[in-house]
Amino acid sequence: MVRKRFRDPRTGVLLSKSFDADKYLRKIGLGKEDHHFWKQVGKALLCTYALFGAAWLFNETSPLGWWSLKPKPKEEKELAHLYERRKFPYPGDEEAMNDFIAKGGMIGTTIGPKGLIENDRDAYNFQKELQDKKFEQEALKMWLRMKNEVIAELQEKGFDFE
């Protein structure tokens, strides 16, 4: 009968050579036979991110100013025909520059309906104004509905209202 000997302890380089990483990677689905699958997954992710990136970039820097992926409120769409695009003169053209300054020039930040100049209206204030208008309309509707209900109840009880 042959006696069993203890194995020499492996340290350093010998330990790293004995470690079979592929065996453990195969158990979690990352072995050599899975390379094709993960390559396809990587390609799909790359294409997806490329498409989303292109859509985002196009939305931010759209050459078609009238077509972007950002929705516009109904009121803004209805009022769009009232707004005019202001044409700025070429800086070297003195006569056009004088006419531009005489018409109002660069006064104000926003050009309102029919080319009127408004100082305190930006996109946020415009949106807030529209929300306030909607809120007031809803409050008025609710008030009228409640008033009509009270009148109807009082008429049922016999009181006469005109």
TrEMBL record:
Q: Protein name, please?
A: Homeobox prospero protein
The species this protein belongs to is Dorcoceras hygrometricum
Q: Which domain of life is it from?
A: Eukaryota
